[in-house]
Design a protein that fits this description.
Length: about 120
C-alpha cells in the first residue's frame, strides 16, 4: 500500500470515531490496527477515501459545505457499495441504510468524511 493512498486516513478516522462515539467498550474488530485488517477491508477503506476525494474534487471543494449528516451519509453509502463489491451476500449490518445505523456509527462516518477533507487541505 502506498503511504499516501488515503486508506489509513480512513481507518484512523474510523478508530478515533469509534473510541469517541461508541457507547461502552467497542468490539476488538472495530479498532483492529491497520496491519491486522483483512485485505478486502483495506481495499474498501481505500475506495471510500478515493470516492470522498473525487466528490470533493468534482464539486471544486464545495462539498465541504455539506451538513455533517450529508457527509456521513456519503461515507455510509460509499461503504455499502464496497460491501456489495466484496461480498455476494453481505451481513445486514454492513449494508444498513443510514436511518438504521446506530448514532455512534453515523457520527463516526461524518468524522471520516471530515478527516479526509482535512487530509486533502
Amino acid at each position: 500500500m502506498a503511504e499516501n493512498d488515503g486508506s489509513q486516513v480512513f481507518r484512523g478516522a474510523w478508530i478515533e470515531g469509534v473510541k469517541r462515539h461508541y457507547p461502552g467498550e467497542p468490539k476488538a474488530s472495530y479498532v483492529t490496527p491497520w496491519a491486522d485488517m483483512p485485505e478486502w477491508e483495506r481495499q474498501a477503506a481505500r475506495a471510500v477515501y478515493e470516492q470522498v476525494q473525487r466528490f470533493l474534487d468534482l464539486s471544486d471543494g464545495h462539498a465541504s459545505r455539506l451538513s455533517r449528516e450529508q457527509k456521513g451519509r456519503f461515507v455510509a453509502t460509499s461503504w455499502i457499495a464496497q460491501m456489495f463489491k466484496h461480498f455476494e451476500s453481505p451481513k445486514a449490518g454492513y449494508v444498513a441504510d443510514w436511518s438504521d445505523l446506530p448514532k455512534w456509527q453515523q457520527e463516526t462516518d461524518a468524522d471520516i468524511f471530515e478527516a479526509i477533507e482535512k487530509s486533502l487541505a
